[in-house]
Amino acid sequence: MTYQNWGPQDLSAPAKAQLPEIPVERGMVLEDVQSGWVGAVTRVEKSGGMHVVALEDRRGKSRSFRLGFGFLLEGQPIRLMPPAPRAPAAAAGARTASGSVRVAGQRAQVAKASRIWVEGKHDAELVERVWGDDLRVEGIVVEPLHGIDDLAAAVKEFGPGPGRRLGVLVDHLVPDSKESRIADAVMASPGAAGNVLIVGHPYVDVWQAIRPAVLGIEQWPVIPRGVDWKTGILTAFGWPHSSKEDIGLGWQKLLGAVRSYADLEPSLLGRVEEVIDFLTVP
Known about the structure:
Number of strands: 11
Radius of gyration: 23 Å
Structural class: alpha/beta
Helix content: 25-40%
Number of helices: 6
Strand order of the largest sheet: 1-7-6-2-3-4-5
Shape: globular
Low-confidence stretches: 1-7
């Protein structure tokens, strides 16, 4: 060892191979090589002059690690870098993730009485991912229902009317389905006409609205009847699937692949745009 090499060294750094340098992102699932800890990125912060990333495992436990070498991303070694710098204020003509023109300097409006309801948390996160900027400008809030079996009672309690409209996005809204019968009953109730709009996509779950090519697959796996759909999907991908935490981490990986409206199927895009128009056009 020469004098120049004497002193503290990063033993986890590769000696020869140049590893890809990947900026850390929220939701990214990583493995720390030294400890074997696997988890999704929940936050990145600067502590003591260095960047530290928090990884939450499938049991909800979290550990922090220093950015740099010693991480695996999808089984491949990487050098984990600080978050990519945020783009400067958008210039005129810049687009949001939904494809609309970004309004420079626009503050979020106070939430209006009108609402968008979706079936669950994952639906809400996907809508926020693509249309969040637009909805904040319009002052429209997205709320998860956690299922639509009690939709009629929820709509009655909401009390829709002029200036208090309701748009509902439903999974698997196809003819003769349970969902279509629930939607028909709600729309036949007093006060719904002109104040409530129920639309839906044909997919079993909103996960399937992500275009397969975005995930590097030709098509979504076909899951046999009797098998929980999300569990079956994670199993087919070879991802952990035995708990709610596994499902949550799997969804974060899928959601992390969505950058804009171009990553979603048109059958979802059109329905969400229809709801936004319904709630914002006088």
